[in-house]
Predict the structure.
Amino acid sequence: MITEFFSLLDTPKSDEDKLLPEYTVGSRKVTIVQTTQELELAIESLKKTKLIGFDSEQKPTFKKGEKANKISLIQLANSRECYLVQVFKIKDITPLLEFIRDRNFVKIGINLVGDKKALYDEYKIHMKGTLDLDGVLTKLTSKNSIGAKKVAKVFLKKNLLKSKKMSVSNWEAEELSQNQIKYASEDATVVYDTILHIINEYPFVLEAMPQWFEVNFNNGKYSTNPLSV
């Protein structure tokens, strides 16, 4: 099991990657959130489970030294739902900020350093209860950042389509395009799906995760069944 895990991460890139089935959010319902009322309902629904896939997007800057734009979009996902929160449209995002600060709900992401900095710079809040998949894997392998596309390939056997054009698109658009919706939702769900797969298939990886997460997971606190909470 251990040998298999590390051999997967050492697998070089090949043209066969393109033959893998495309990664999608699966049967999840994707909802765009644009009002405080919609946000409250989304957070209430997400609180039925403890594990949440997380990501954020900002309108890109193109000039060297230009100040970073504010957060445009925050993506939150569990096994059944994915919410795309257009924060720049919402007058009061207090429910979202309280959720982000609540250590009882685990926000799973990849390379969360930038997200944490952006949240602090803009809202002066510290994101709590985080599990950084990239951090866990680099701790085990001593490699540089591994990235969502590779973890999807080696663990889920799926091809995550990461379009550079979408990554630098206008995330403050009044209406997100279908390609933006696909890109943003998959960024949040792929880390969720991957971490659950790794824990189930390679449980020894739990030892490389924060101790509080390992203890709570082993105690059954992080069930993915929404009805169990």
Q: What stands out?
A: The longest strand covers residues 51-58. The first helix runs from residue 2 to 9.
